[in-house]
Amino acid sequence: xxxxxxxxxxxxxxxxxxxxxxxxxxxxxxxxxxxxxxxxxxxxxxxxxxxxxxxxxxxxxxxxxxxxxxxxxxxxxxxx
Length: 80
Known about the structure:
Largest sheet: 3 strands, mixed
Shape: elongated
Number of helices: 3
Order of helices and strands: EHEEHH
Radius of gyration: 20 Å
Structural class: alpha+beta
């Protein structure tokens, strides 16, 4: 989370409706982060990522892609 996404408790209390439109932010007190807000979309994306990374077939495909071993085929070349 970027440093500019950290706000104080006082700022959070004063700006909560506006802040809830953000994707995420941290709340600090006396210079220490005491809480984090994540939007529903961000949480759903994190859960989906964890599910994908827990799938052995996906992680294998991801490794192949990153290593350059994965082959791509043009949709026009596919025979239906």
